[in-house]
């Protein structure tokens, strides 16, 4: 289906924003929250424009976060740049900070998924069976030796406890990857059930929950954490 | 020995105190309400600032923790407070000790 050339829109009102999003609930959209006074936004704006050209099927919405307060608040945007990827009204990813590579990876992941007919893992509506979700969650838990499920990202933590966990791991020179549970509500809830642990951050070592921030602090203090890292995984 | 007058505790703190006391028969249970520190954070703003009982720091000394790993101790507490966590209680910082861990000499003196 031919898209209008103008797939990039400057948002000037909440109504315009809602109308554009609701026009096609299967379409992937990219919402770029920015501010003219924030230096990192310049770089991110360029990246967004490049992606808009590369993927004309994506609806790109430029939102000046401070001018469109209602929209920013409804998506819980507290800093710029923040880029959200949605399919229809479903939040796929939240990228906080000028992380060009994270955005580029995320958008190509979601677009290739939607166009591939043979991929069984999710339908275009983003529906995923619980079994598929659990498999995905476990894959993420095993994506590296140490995985931190946190709010935000190590460069831009969205919670004091998550920030402390990042700081502690960095101080200990531990190599780790992270997963931002704020960008994936399904993983956020399912992991709590799987690990029988109601809060974040969660520190995973060798695919298993070690605990939250308190336990991380304790095990680092006693040296137990370093021992865990030295033991080889199955 | 309680170090809080009943009148100053909200319902969530009261529930935490009652449930943990029943479950753990603690030697010491100190609950500090830290909600005001987090009031302005994004998640709390979205809730309208929370109800003043969203974040607590809990220190418990109890013999019930003997032989249990830290993660087991934390799970015991989370399980006891699952209703509260499902509602307004957003986060709890936990410090869990047995009497011996706090004061090794007490192990020698206790029967």
Report on this model:
The complex is a heterodimer of chains A (234) and B (111). Chain A folds into 2 domains: 8-111, Glutaredoxin, CATH 3.40.30; 130-231, Glutaredoxin (3-Layer(aba) Sandwich), CATH 3.40.30. Helix content of chain A is 42%, strand content 21%. Chain A has helices spanning 14-22, 39-54, 69-74, 100-115, 130-141, 160-171, 185-195, 213-222, 224-230; strands at 8-10, 28-34, 59-64, 82-87, 90-96, 146-150, 152-153, 156-157, 177-180, 202-205, 208-211. In chain A, the strands form 3 sheets. Chain A has a 5-stranded mixed beta sheet with strand order 1-3-2-4-5, sandwiched between helices. In chain A, strands 9-6-10-11 form a 4-stranded mixed beta sheet. Chain B has one domain (6-109): BolA-like (GMP Synthetase, Chain A, domain 3), CATH 3.30.300.90. Helices cover 44% and strands 18% of the residues of chain B. Chain B contains 7 helices and 3 strands; from the N terminus they run αβααβααβαα. The longest helix of chain B is centred in the first third of the chain and has 14 residues, at 11-24. Chains A and B meet through strand 11 and helix 8 of A and helix 3, helix 4 and strand 3 of B.
Question: What is shown here, in short?
Answer:
The complex is a heterodimer of chains A (234) and B (111). With 234 residues, chain A is of the alpha/beta class.
What descriptors fit this protein?
heterodimer; A: 234 residues; alpha/beta; Glutaredoxin; 2 domains; 5-stranded mixed β-sheet; 4-stranded mixed β-sheet; 42% helix; 21% strand; globular; disordered N terminus; B: 111 residues; alpha+beta; GMP Synthetase, Chain A, domain 3; 3-stranded mixed β-sheet; 44% helix
Helix-strand layout with pairing:
The complex is a heterodimer of chains A (234) and B (111).
Chain A: E1 8-10, H1 14-22, E2 28-34, H2 39-54, E3 59-64, H3 69-74, E4 82-87, E5 90-96, H4 100-115, H5 130-141, E6 146-150, E7 152-153, E8 156-157, H6 160-171, E9 177-180, H7 185-195, E10 202-205, E11 208-211, H8 213-222, H9 224-230
Parallel strand pairs in A: 1-3, 2-3, 6-9
Antiparallel strand pairs in A: 2-4, 4-5, 6-10, 7-8, 10-11
Helix pairs in contact in A: 5-7, 6-8
Chain B: H1 11-24, E1 28-33, H2 35-38, H3 42-46, E2 55-61, H4 70-80, H5 82-86, E3 91-97, H6 99-102, H7 104-109
Parallel strand pairs in B: 2-3
Antiparallel strand pairs in B: 1-2
Pfam families (chain B): BolA
Family (chain B): Belongs to the BolA/IbaG family.
Protein name (chain B): Bola-like protein
